[in-house]
Structures are given as C-alpha cells and as structure tokens.
Amino acid sequence: MPLMWYNGSIMSTVENIVLGTPIVSLDDLGVRPDEITTFVDFEEIENEDGEVFLPVLLKHCGIFESTSKVKQAHRQRIKSTKIKDELSRNLWRNIDGFEVTHFKIGKRIFWLIVGER
C-alpha cells in the first residue's frame, strides 16, 4: 500500500530506493507495482571523488532531514543488539558496490537496492 495513515493524516512512504541500474529486474527482487520506488542516479549524489555517502542518499530521498540526523540515528543503531545485519546497522558509510539492504528506521521500512552505474 503506497500511502499510510499517521496521526490522522496521510503521509507517503518510500518503500524502495534504487540507486543506479539494478543488475536483476525489480520483479525478480519481489518489488510490487504498487510499492513506492524512488530511482536515483549515481551522478545526482556522488561526491567529487565519485563516492556515494549513504547519509547523503538518505537525506536526498527524504528519509532524514539532514546528515546530522543520520549521524544521531547511526550512533543509536551501532549500540543496538536488535539489528544483526551490519549493512543495515551502519548508516554512516560509503556505498561501495552492489547491495540489497533492508532498513527499518523509526516507523519507516524500506529496501536499498544498489545496481550498476
């Protein structure tokens, strides 16, 4: 369902963030047509060294208001014993290659799908 109710008002949610071109189809990954998917090109968010910093991507997609908010969330997640997957736990990192990572940040749940440049 692309929209959800929150405190009596409708807010949109990002269910998938696709960075670059996926190496397999979104159908093969189980992405449904009714899910909200945000497509981002590497050129939109990479720095001058050609690296993609995850906090910049999360800010760009509206998951966080600023990269400092990402850093605050990162500090809490690193201490957490509930999050077992290292890629999902670490928000303060560069995206180095292909990945499909599930995130739950507050009430937001989404997948990060990183493909080719």
Describe the protein's architecture and organization.
- With 117 residues, the chain is an alpha/beta fold.
- The protein has one domain (3-114).
- It is 24% helix and 29% strand.
- The strands form three sheets. It has a four-stranded mixed β-sheet with strand order 4-3-8-7. Strands 1-2 form a two-stranded antiparallel sheet. Strands 5-6 form a two-stranded antiparallel sheet.
- β1 and β2 form a beta hairpin.
Can you summarize this structure?
This protein is 24% helix and 29% strand. By secondary structure, it is of the alpha/beta class. The model is unreliable at 1-12 (pLDDT under 50).
- Fraction in helix: 10-25%
Overall number of domains: 1
- C-alpha termini separation: 29 Å
Task: Compute the CA-based radius of gyration.
Answer: 14 Å
**Quaternary structure state of the chains depicted:** single chain
Q: What percent strand? A: 25-35%
The largest pleated sheet is described as: 4 strands, mixed
Q: How many beta-strand segments? A: 8
Mean pLDDT: 88
Q: Enumerate how many helices there are, as a single number.
A: 4
Secondary-structure element pattern, one letter each: EEEEHEHHHEEE
What's the shape? globular
Order of strands, main sheet, comes to 4-3-8-7
Structural class: alpha/beta
| Unreliable segments of 5+ consecutive residues | 1-12
